[in-house]
Design brief:
By secondary structure, this protein is α/β, with parallel strands linked by helices. It folds into 2 domains: 173 residues, Vaccinia Virus protein VP39 (Rossmann fold, 3-Layer(aba) Sandwich); 78 residues, Putative methyltransferase TM0872, insert domain (DNA polymerase, domain 1, Orthogonal Bundle), CATH 1.10.150. The protein has 13 helices and 7 strands. A 7-stranded mixed sheet has the order 3-2-1-4-5-7-6, with helices on both faces. The longest helix is centred in the C-terminal third of the chain and has 16 residues. The N and C termini lie far apart (43 Å).
């Protein structure tokens, strides 16, 4: 994959992440969702004597990061889902990290170039799998699951109040083989829209979360990340919808109550008005941070 994508990748809340990370020249850092390498590029610049572990579940995007970061020799790349952070750290013989980042957002690569059906305009696919290792595609869900099962997925993972109506019309009009046709159906079906938000946003979010087990992965990841983190180290989570943020919020709250460390963000940080204006993808971001007890 050439390093010349038709879009500009902008790491979200970069200044806030770096300020919280408190990196020194010899820091050990894990970027659990490396993506195109936006955050990792800035980490690598600040730790010339340290080490950086870049993890991503999609081998294609990891190759993009590898190319972009090729001028930094202190980086290890690992293909895998980040709920395996403990295993990956052991496999790579990586030191206890001073800082861990998990950016839970969907990369521009997956929206613009991957062709996996996450974009509403994709006429080639309705797959939505971020990793080739995932078993169930969104196309299989839409075309083979029962109507009630589809409605439950859309409601649970998309918080879509018109889930039953949408599921009924999907069931009546299937099969669907690309994202554009599905998005067009939802646009015609759904009565209530929120400003500029595409009518299919919540349904597509639900399908993507279900197919990629995103909430399960996050719940498995958090205790493992805290375990591998160096005493005195910090972890930052960037979430993009309420389901993710709720999981992180309650985990950090319980970890603090149980004496594992302290919450650094009593309320989640959000992008500055300037960043939100310049980068639409950042607008819904919530950042939470935790410091492990020394």
């Amino acid at each position: 994959m050439a390093d010349t994508p038709g879009y500009v990748h902008t790491p979200v809340m970069l200044n806030e992440v770096l300020e919280t990370a408190r990196l020194t020249s010899g820091s050990a850092v894990i970027d659990c969702t490396c993506g195109e390498g936006g955050h990792s590029r800035e980490f690598a610049r600040r730790i010339p004597g340290g080490s950086l572990l870049c993890i991503d579940r999609d081998p294609r995007i990891l190759e993009i990061a590898r190319t972009r970061l090729s001028d930094h020799p202190n980086i290890t790349f690992a293909n895998g889902v980040f709920d395996r952070i403990d295993e990956i750290v052991q496999e790579q013989n990586f030191p206890p990290p001073d800082f861990i980042l998990a950016d839970l957002g969907i990369s521009m690569f997956h929206l613009k170039e991957a062709g996996i059906g996450i974009s509403y305009t994709d006429k080639e696919s309705l797959d939505m799998r971020l990793s080739p290792d995932e078993n169930i595609s969104a196309e299989r869900v839409i075309n083979t699951f029962k109507e009630q099962e589809i409605a439950d997925i859309i409601y649970k993972y998309g918080e879509e109040f018109e889930s039953r109506k949408i599921a009924r019309e999907i069931y009546r009009n299937r099969p669907f083989h690309n994202a554009a046709d599905l998005a067009d159906l939802i646009r015609r079906v759904k009565r209530h829209t929120k400003g500029r938000i595409h009518p299919a946003t919540q349904t597509f979010q639900a399908l993507r979360i279900f197919v990629n087990r995103e909430l399960d992965v996050l719940e498995l990841f958090l205790p493992k990340a805290l375990e591998v983190l160096k005493p005195g180290g910090r972890i930052v989570i960037l979430s993009f919808h309420s389901l993710e943020d709720r999981i992180v919020k309650y985990f950090f709250r319980e970890a603090e109550k149980d004496g594992y460390g302290q919450i650094l963000t009593k309320k989640p940080l959000t992008p500055s008005p300037e960043e939100a204006r310049l980068n639409a993808a950042a607008r819904s971001t919530k950042m939470r941070a935790f410091e492990k007890r020394i």
